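ligand=uridine-diphosphate-N-acetylglucosamine
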Amino acid sequence: MKIISVVGARPNFMKVAPIHRAIQEYNEKLSSQNSEVQKSGNPIIHKICHTGQHYDEKMSKIFFEDLELPKPDYYLGVGSGSHAEQTAKVMIEFEKVLLDEKPDYVLVVGDVNSTIACSLTAKKLHIKVIHVEAGLRSFDMEMPEEVNRVLTDRISDLLFVTEQSGFNNLRNEGVSDEKIYFVGNVMIDSVKHYLPKTENSKILEKYSLQKQKYVLVTLHRPSNVDEKNQLEKLFKLLNRIAEERKVIFPIHPRTRKNLERFNLNETISKNIILTEPIGYIDFLTLTKNAELILTDSGGIQEESTYLGVQCITLRTSTERPATVEVGTNQLLGTDLELAEKTALEVLSGKIKVGKIPDLWDGHAAERIVEIVNSES
Ligand code: UD1
């Protein structure tokens, strides 16, 4: 069996890494079986295609190193552009790969433009599509990721969900139960696997941060950073928090560009450390040791819930409701007064106690490989 997995943007790398590892382990187990005994399956040929949606060293290369991912078999080098341009370029280049490789499955993760581009290309060539992290819904079609999620799920053949809501959403959309598998969360597989490595990270020393005494911030959603007024308001909130604690904010290229475009750099408190985007292990170290996280990311809501770290999500909706229902996440929308009040409460000790959602146990990728194998 041949599978081509797609990675494109930063949040994809840590989801494909455990799948690659699980396939390798499966192949090793298979080859170690006594040849006289009938082998219990066929080896899986796994190839990785990087679309090049993210191309900066700090957004891509460092993740391959940190996550011990092999050099991709294909690099499409599509780069930035409008949504249509980026999606179209990925489709054109990925079609050539598929015609050449003729895989049995294309495996896509998450919800970025590369996810929909590659699943659509595969489906049109009658190649089966596996969607890992299926079924998540924010119900906000203004988010490009929601469009990508809904459309990818519609054409996927095997849908692996991370939480019960994913199962319910897909069922409500008419996806038949046989295609849906609740397997847990590959993102958490990576957190669990790489956590020991955070012991060697020097990131706290580098920025003179003390464990449990700083606030970690990430903001990059178009709805938060593409409009001057909103970005200005968010920095007012961060400046207020910076009166209480050191704040560290690794800045995404989109946010960096907008801070310059709107001339906001001068308004930022000296107690806010703005850094370049940070690699996987160092970022995990920052997440694990933070007193509080403020974010608009998807994955960080999950990582903080798993690690039991307080998280305030500055968005009106979340496609990951388990992080709010059972985890440490608080969804506070665009009400920045409420966000300020809540953040200050957390810093004074009023925390939200959370639990780890079902099956977020570090074994999601193994379950996926087992199921794909039994389906083929
Ligand atoms: C993409 C994903 C988003 C994900 C985010 C994580 C889509 C629709 N969105 O958004 O879901 O949370 O990645 O980072 O796929 N840029 C660089 N260097 C890079 C990559 C991007 O400078 O390596 C710049 C681009 O030129 C552009 C901006 O960052 O100006 C946005 O990049 P883009 O890939 O279009 O979307 P993201 O906002 O990163």
